[in-house]
Amino acid sequence: MKTFLPKEDATPRQWWIVDAEGQILGRLAVKIANILRGKNKAIYTPHLDAGDFVIVVNSEKVKLTGKKNTDKVYSSYSGYPDGLKEVTADRVRARKPTRMIAEAVFGMMPKGRLARKQFRKLKLFVGAEHKHAAQNPKPLTLD
Question: Closest by alpha carbon to 37, among 24, 28, 48, 27?
Fold first, then answer.
């Protein structure tokens, strides 16, 4: 028996569209990360990029459970002394609403070159309009 290894060029790419309105952030991020990696396909191989493209619309309307709107903190560090900036989820949603989904999905991806390449296939949009209509994305139903 020989092990079948798919070729990265031969894997067909599908475009999916997800409406984030009313979806819980963590559950949505798991589904998106699995599709970006290709874990929903039978030809999944951990060391190859077999994933699909994902378009997320209405990213500002994603839900956080409990008191995470006020208690969850997003931090960034510039590298300089006293360079730590901490912002609550409410302010992140007001300033850059796509950051919440992007950080949640990126945190669920493996770390390395391949994951960064796969992460670039995620397209986030505020509102219901997007610029990838020519790719004919299929709607992704989240259970």
Answer: 48
